[in-house]
Amino acid sequence: MTTGFKRNAAQSPARHPLSENQTENKNMEQSSIEASKNGKQWCLNDFEIGKPLGRGKFGKVYLAREKKSKYIVALKVLTKSQLLKAGVEHQLRREIEIQCHLRNRNILRMYGYFYDNKRIYLILEYSTGGELYRKLTSKGRFNEKNSAKYICDMAQALSYCHAKHIIHRDIKPENLLIGSRGEIKIADFGWSVHAPTSRRNTLCGTLDYLPPEMVEGREHDEMVDVWSLGVLMYEFLVGSPPFEAEGHSATYRRISRVDLKFPKGLSEDSKDLIRKLLQKDPRKRLSLDSVPNHPWVLRNLRS
Ligand code: AMP
């Protein structure tokens, strides 16, 4: 399947998404892949397939180029039999419905999808910087300036989702990618949910990032993402999540008690923001819209 091709800057508009003076280009570029669709269904023959970018639970992700527009994308190829075996068709359908409708510079675009007998193909924005998790593990932790930029951008992207009544519910470094200008991209909406009216009480997400209300099986709402943002900020600055423990029940206990300990050396204003995000009572958590104005963010974005 992999044929490999050289990317040509002149032919690959997706190479510089969102560069400063290219808003107009970006609009043209964005419309180019959508315009080339022209109302028809996408199929595999519309794309040249390049190198594999990574492997996920249900298939592989390839670099690909839409033949007509020359637009570079990431093509996620999922195997139907594996999806059925794991019983996650509903989850995938929801992921597609939600991600296709989101337009935010810190949320990975999904341009569309198609399928054949054996596979489902997701046409995604190509994130040139790769996985944030890999960057974090190689560096150990991020400095305050980078962390503040990421946290501020995440808060704004999550606020955008919440305004559309979408809760992400699975914020963690593994679900974040880095764009061509170093910007953070929320990439995985597999656990996200439309929350038009009712509160949900499904237990999902990754252990270390679960809020007390989910650990305790209580109802939850969009404030779960605020908690996860606090866990993420702690992990960015410290290098490991705050409630890490041996075994699930020990982790649950630490989360439920909000057993928050800071290593030496963290600034007072960073600890203040983490504490304000990691409030046990969801209603007492800082609002996402207040995050960009917190002194820690302002101090680090200024410098
Ligand atoms: P996933 O199945 O979403 O977990 O993706 C598997 C791996 O493919 C990820 O860990 C990334 O390394 C890579 N990948 C997925 N989507 C993209 C993308 N849009 N741009 C670049 N790399 C990606």
Description:
The protein has 303 residues and is an alpha+beta fold. The protein has two domains: 117 residues, Phosphorylase Kinase, domain 1 (2-Layer Sandwich), CATH 3.30.200; 173 residues, Transferase(Phosphotransferase) domain 1 (Transferase(Phosphotransferase), domain 1). The protein is built from ten helices and ten strands. The strands form three sheets. It has a five-stranded antiparallel sheet. The chain has a three-stranded antiparallel sheet with strand order 6-8-9. Strands 7-10 form a two-stranded antiparallel ribbon. The protein is globular and about 55 Å long. The N terminus is likely disordered. Bound molecules: adenosine monophosphate. The site of adenosine monophosphate has 16 residues, from strand 1, strand 3, strand 5 and strand 6.
